[in-house]
Amino acid sequence: MAQEDMPRTVRDLLRGLDRAALASALPLEATGEAGNWPYASLVLVAVDHDLSPILLLSELAEHTKAIQADGRVSLLFDGTVGLDQPLTGPRVTLLGRAAPTTDERAKARFLARHPDAAMYAGFEDFHFYRVALERAHLVGGFGKIRWLDRAELLSPVATGLAVAEPGIVAHMNEDHADAVQLYAGRLLGLAGAEWRMTGIDAEGIDLRRGGQVARLAFDQPLAAAADARQVLVALVARARAAE
C-alpha cells in the first residue's frame, strides 16, 4: 500500500461500514473505582460528507453517560470480516471528540443509512452526536501501519452535493431502481434484489439491502453536485457492458 493511498483507504473503509466499536471513558461513579475506565460498545454509524462520524445514542446508554463527562472517544472500523487471515485486513481507529448535534441534514443522512432507526430516533432520550475527527490510526495489514492527522483525512467535498443529496438519492430509488440494481449486481457482484441507494458523496455511493451495506467508489471525485448525473449514467453504461 503506497503511502499516498492511505488516506483514501481510511475514507473508503469508514464509508463502506455502517457500524463501529466505540471506546469511551466511564466516569468514577459507573466503575466504582478511582479514575475512569475504558469502555467499548457497538454503535451504528453514518459518515458525513466531511468524514465526521454521526451517531444516534440513548441517554440511558453507558457510552452516552461517558461522553457527557468526557467527549474524547475513539471508533474502531473493522474491515477484516470474512478474511481467512483477519490480521492481513484493514482496520482504522479514529480519535475525536463527540458532541450533540441538531443538524437536520446530518440526522437525515444517518436515517437514510439506517432506516430502521427512524422507529426510535424521535424518542426523548435519543440524541444525535457528531464526532470531530482529530487523528486516525490505520492498520492495513502486516507492516502497513500509520497515523494520519485530520488534514490528511479530509474528504474531497463536491460543491452543493450535501444539499442536493436527498433529491439525488430519492430520484435514483424511485425512478431508476433498475440502475441501482445494476450497480449492486454487475459492478459489485452482489446477490439479491431491492438494493437501494442511501447516500452519495464526492467519492462514491452507498447502498443497502436489508442488513447488508455496500460501497461503490467513483474513479475520480466529483467536483460539484452537477457532475453526479453524468457519473451515475456512465456507471450504468459500464454495468450493462459487463453483461
Mean pLDDT over the full residue set: 93
Counting DSSP H or I runs of 4 or more residues, the number of helices is 8
The helix-strand sequence is HEHEEEHEEHEEHHHEEEH
Going by CATH, the homologous superfamily of the largest domain would be Electron Transport, Fmn-binding Protein, Chain A
Q: How many extended strands?
A: 11
Strand content: 25-35%
Q: Mind telling me which CATH architecture of the largest domain this is?
A: Roll
Tally of discrete structural domains: 2
Shape: globular
**Biggest sheet statistics:** 8 strands, antiparallel
Give the CATH class of the largest domain: Mainly Beta
Q: How many angstroms does the end-to-end distance come to?
A: 31 Å
Q: Nearest-angstrom radius of gyration?
A: 19 Å
Helix content: 25-40%
Looking at CATH, which topology of the largest domain would you report? Pnp Oxidase, Chain A
Low-confidence region ranges: none
- Structural class, from helix and strand content? alpha+beta
Describe the structure.
The protein has helices spanning 6-16, 28-31, 62-69, 104-113, 150-153, 161-175, 177-187, 228-241; strands spanning 19-26, 37-44, 46-47, 53-58, 72-78, 91-100, 126-139, 145-149, 196-201, 204-209, 212-217. It starts with 5 loop residues before the first helix and ends with a helix. The chain folds into 2 domains: 3-153, Pnp Oxidase, Chain A (Roll); 161-241, PNP-oxidase-like (Split barrel-like, Alpha-Beta Barrel), CATH 3.20.180. It has 8 helices and 11 strands. Helix 7 packs across helix 8 (228-241). Strands 1, 2, 3, 4, 5, 6, 7 and 8 form an 8-stranded antiparallel sheet that branches. Strands 9-10-11 form a 3-stranded antiparallel sheet, with helices on both faces. With 243 residues, the chain is an alpha+beta fold. The protein is 32% helix and 32% strand.
